[in-house]
């Protein structure tokens, strides 16, 4: 299949520019589009055939459910039932925006879209391209991140092309995304609200609306082999991973820099293509090694915005071994470290004093 890349002018966005994309979606085809978090791979959420195409294009396990994107809260009771008050409160506070809610699904939502589950994930994106595409198409749009399954999510149209060209009808290029990490997922089907995936909206912000909210224990997982099973099916897979083997070092920053340098030099000396994931503050401390910086340590939002792009950069370099520093875990840092540790397959080394 030929994949068409369509360049959009964000400053002069007009419905006309999205008409063709909307028609493709109405015909059951797939269109990748920007959202404020990451690029999404869109298909008609109520068309089981379109969902099947999404799984095929991504090479995604079919038990991993899709998020349904809407442009109006009126869609909530159409797609979900037994909606608790808390869901309306979260919607009021965080939509449109980078927050996804898990609710009980209505019959209208096919099991193909929810990976066989009786619940459905719903999000109202704030990105104007995404919002306009949903409105112009008149559909609810199922959209996982527009990457090949297991790869880092896509934050630029060129990443989508890299992973999915030839497999989907169209890519809408709206430039680099704003946030760079996927939405915060809140499950509202249990006794208390649980964050299944940390994102730009933090636990503290969710608690400002729903004080009894907490993390699903799987989010705090640090070990590869513990027995905690993730409630979001997608969170159990190795994910976001560069092709090289990534190890993350944690501990006191000085000890981390020391250990990263030592291990990277060792692999380099063994003849492997080796690279270091560092920060602006530390990037000059690895002389003789290939280093990529994800930004200033204090600037968690900046790190979030370029993490996936940097992980893909390591692939472009052909890095076989990557040694990474750890970053802050407060605020958005919680989501950054969650993605980084998953990318490393929980290959974490603690160094020095703790
Ligand atoms: O920011 C985002 O959420 C992006 C953009 C495109 O909106 N989308 C995204 O979709 O990240 P995806 O498919 O890559 O991740 C969806 C996650 C998966 O971990 C999946 O298992 C979980 O949401 N999920 C979806 N439906 C669920 C459900 N009914 N119950 C529990 N987890 C669910
Ligand atoms: Mg994904």
Summarize the structure.
By secondary structure, the protein is an alpha/beta fold. Helices cover 29% and strands 20% of the residues. It has 2 domains: 4-220, DHBP synthase, CATH 3.90.870; 245-350, Rossmann fold (3-Layer(aba) Sandwich), CATH 3.40.50.11030.
Proportion in helices: 25-40%
Q: For the terminal residues, how far apart are their CA atoms?
A: 53 Å
Bound heterogens, unique: threonylcarbamoyladenylate, magnesium ion
Largest sheet: 12 strands, mixed
Q: Which structural class do you get from the secondary structure elements?
A: alpha/beta
Strand content bin: 15-25%
CATH fold-level topology of the largest domain: DHBP synthase
Uncertain runs: none
Number of helices: 10
Domains counted in the coordinates: how many?
Answer: 2
Order of helices and strands: EHEEHEHEHEEHEHEEEHEEHEEHEHE
Mean pLDDT, all residues: 95
Q: How many whole angstroms does the radius of gyration measure?
A: 20 Å
Instruction: Assign the CATH superfamily of the largest domain.
Output: DHBP synthase
Count of strand segments: 17
Shape: globular
CATH class membership of the largest domain: Alpha Beta
What is the correct CATH architecture of the largest domain? Alpha-Beta Complex
Q: How would you describe this structure to a colleague?
A:
The protein has 10 helices and 17 strands. With 354 residues, it is of the alpha/beta class. The chain has 2 domains: 4-220, DHBP synthase, CATH 3.90.870; 245-350, Threonylcarbamoyl-AMP synthase, C-terminal domain (Rossmann fold, 3-Layer(aba) Sandwich). The strands form 2 sheets. Strands 1, 2, 3, 4, 5, 6, 7, 8, 9, 10, 11 and 12 form a 12-stranded mixed β-sheet that branches. A 5-stranded parallel β-sheet has the order 15-14-16-13-17, with helices on both faces. The structure holds threonylcarbamoyladenylate and magnesium ion. Magnesium ion binds at residues 144-145, 153.
């Amino acid at each position: 299949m030929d994949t068409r890349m369509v360049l959009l002018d964000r400053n002069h966005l007009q419905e006309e520019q999205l008409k063709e994309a909307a028609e493709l979606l109405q015909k059951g085809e797939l269109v990748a589009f920007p959202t404020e978090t990451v690029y999404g791979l869109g298909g008609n959420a109520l068309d089981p055939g379109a969902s099947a195409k999404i799984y095929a294009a991504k090479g995604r396990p079919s038990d991993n459910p899709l998020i349904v994107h809407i442009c109006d809260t009126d869609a909530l009771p159409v797609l979900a039932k037994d909606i608790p008050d808390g869901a309306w409160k979260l919607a009021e506070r965080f939509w449109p925006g980078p927050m996804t809610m898990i609710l009980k699904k209505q019959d209208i939502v096919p099991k193909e879209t929810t990976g066989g589950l009786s619940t459905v994930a719903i999000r109202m994106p704030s990105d104007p391209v995404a919002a306009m595409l949903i409105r112009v198409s008149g559909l609810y749009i199922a959209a996982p991140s527009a990457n090949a399954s297991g790869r880092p999510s896509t934050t630029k149209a060129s990443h989508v092309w890299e992973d999915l060209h030839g497999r989907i009808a169209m890519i809408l290029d709206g430039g680099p995304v704003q946030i760079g990490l996927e939405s915060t997922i809140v499950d509202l089907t249990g006794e208390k609200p649980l964050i299944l995936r940390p994102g730009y909206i933090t636990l503290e912000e969710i608690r400002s609306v729903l004080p009894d909210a907490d993390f699903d224990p799987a989010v705090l997982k640090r070990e590869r082999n513990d027995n905690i099973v993730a409630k979001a099916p997608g969170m159990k897979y190795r994910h976001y991973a560069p092709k090289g083997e990534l190890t993350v070092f944690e501990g006191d920053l000085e000890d981390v820099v020391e250990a990263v340098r030592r291990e990277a030099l060792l692999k380099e000396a063994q003849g492997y293509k080796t690279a270091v994931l560092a920060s602006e503050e530390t990037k000059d401390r690895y002389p003789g090694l290939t280093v990529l910086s994800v930004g200033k340590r204090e600037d968690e939002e900046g790190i979030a915005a370029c993490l996936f792009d940097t992980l893909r950069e390591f692939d472009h370099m052909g890095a076989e071994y990557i040694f990474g520093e750890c970053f802050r875990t407060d605020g958005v840092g919680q989501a950054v470290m969650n993605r980084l540790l998953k990318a490393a397959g929980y290959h974490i080394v603690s160094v020095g004093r703790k």
